[in-house]
Amino acid sequence: MKPSKITITDVARLARVSKRTVSRVINDSPKVGKQTRARIKKIIDDLGYSPDVQARGLASRRSYLLGLIYDRPDAFYIDKVLRGILSVCREAGYELVVHPCDYHSETLTREALSFVARLKLDGVIVLPPISEDDQLAAALEDEHVRYVRLASIPLDKPEHVVISNERVAVAEMTEYLVQLGHRRIGYITGPKGLISTRERLEGYRQALAGQGIEYDEGLVARGEYTFESGLRCSLALLDLNPRPTAIFASNDEMAVGVIDTARNLGLHIPGDLSVVGFDDSILASRINPALTTIRRPVREMARLAASKLIASIDGREEDARVGVILVPSLVERETTRPLD
Q1: Rounded to whole angstroms, how far apart are CA atoms 18 and 32?
Q2: Full strand arrangement of the beta sheet holding 325-326
Q3: How far apart are the first and last CA of the chain?
Q4: pTM of the model
Q5: Residue partners of 313: CB distance under 8 A and separation at least 6
Q6: Which residues of 71-85 are buried (b: 16+ CB within 10 A; e: fewer)?
Q7: What number of other Cβ atoms are within 10 A of residue 35's Cβ?
Q8: Most buried of the four, 33, 51, 107, 339, by CB within 10 Å?
Q9: CA 11 to chain centre
Q10: What are phi and psi of 145, to 5 degrees?
Q11: 184 phi and psi, to 5 degrees?
């Protein structure tokens, strides 16, 4: 015979409390004392009790579903995001539903709202570049949909955003290259119109100014955050006379394109050219030589976004409103060296 399924009644009986009290603990209600909460949670863990999600949702008028809205082909980036969000969902009893879409679509807002309504989501997390769309954010607000955006600037109220200060990180990397002796530093931007593109470029410009180096538009090429644009832009930069002694690509995929172009031109890295990137994707540590880059704390940002969103859903507004600004860190590897 199969063992009987553990129920909320069993938990309540062993904890010597009512089923309502157990339910409050499961739903993270603040109306239960610390000692009682700890005792009930221990019994839940010992019994391996898992509340019925459907029944839990009916009782609390929630779906216990969060949505993730994104447009990013980088599977490694998405993997980090998922790991961060799911680490919070598991503890809080939520499930995650993903919705890839086209940032350039004219029906983006309508599709996102349909996604939320169709699955009765309790809230959504929005990744860049879609998170930069104020029209979508306004539509979510109008429809009373709880949301959190990952961004590079404080483009919303604190409860709606987790920030990665990319301008500061790029400035730090640029200063690092200057300290290695480089003064002709080529720079490959991201796509036109994105906030991340603007913030990273401003970090580069400000660092040059701070080091007494005049900004030269001729050393800046417009990329698209793709390997192919890294090839194209680095070819143009390395055709300059004199050519740059270092190239800063504003994401790792473009930096790999720079390395490929340099090799095809017979240049040695880092002997003839230093190369740096941004993101610290899995490519950065696996390419040879390993790429010096900026590590964006993607997993931690996603974890904090999920925590902030669930706090808002639970009515813990003070927790949701806590401002979160993270600063990416420089990771020194093998593609940079002091200029002779």
Answers
A1: 12
A2: 95-100, 65-70, 123-126, 146-151, 161-164, 325-326
A3: 78
A4: 0.79
A5: 62, 122, 123, 146
A6: beebeebbebbbebb
A7: 8
A8: 51
A9: 38
A10: -95, 125
A11: -100, 90
Q: What is the pLDDT of residue 203?
A: 97
- What are phi and psi for residue 80, nearest 5 degrees? -65, -40
Quick one: 265 exposed, middle or buried, by C-beta within 10 A (0-12, 13-18, 19+)?
Answer: middle
In the three-class reduction of DSSP (H, G, I as helix; E, B as strand; rest coil), residue 184 is classed as coil
**The two structure tokens encoding residue 312:** 């808002």
Out of 2.40.30.10, 1.25.40.10, 3.40.720.10, 3.40.50.2300, which CATH number does the structure's domain 65-164+297-328 have? 3.40.50.2300
Looking at this protein, which amino acid is placed at residue 315?
Answer: G
CB 193 within 8 A of CB 254: no
The encoded tokens of residue 2 equal: 């199969």
User: Which CATH fold would you assign to the domain 166-296?
Assistant: Rossmann fold (3.40.50)
- Please state, in angstroms and rounded to a whole number, the distance separating the CA atoms of residues 240 and 247: 12
**Sheet bearing 185-189, strands edge to edge:** 220-222, 185-189, 246-249, 274-276
The DSSP code for 217 is G
Question: How many whole angstroms from its chain centre is CA 269?
Answer: 30
Q: Which residue has the tokens 């590897």?
A: 333
CATH no., domain 8-60:
1.10.260.40
Amino acid in position 49: Y
Pairing of strands 293-295, 329-331: antiparallel
According to DSSP, the residues that pair with 70 across neighbouring strands are: 100
The closest alpha carbon to 324, from 76, 149, 117, belongs to 149
Q: Start-end ranges of CATH 1.10.260.40 in the chain?
A: 8-60
Mean pLDDT per 10-residue interval, the chain, length 340 residues: 67 87 76 87 85 53 89 82 93 90 90 93 95 94 95 93 96 97 97 94 97 96 96 97 97 96 96 96 91 95 95 90 92 94
For the chain, give every residue range classified as CATH 3.40.50.2300: 65-164+297-328, 166-296
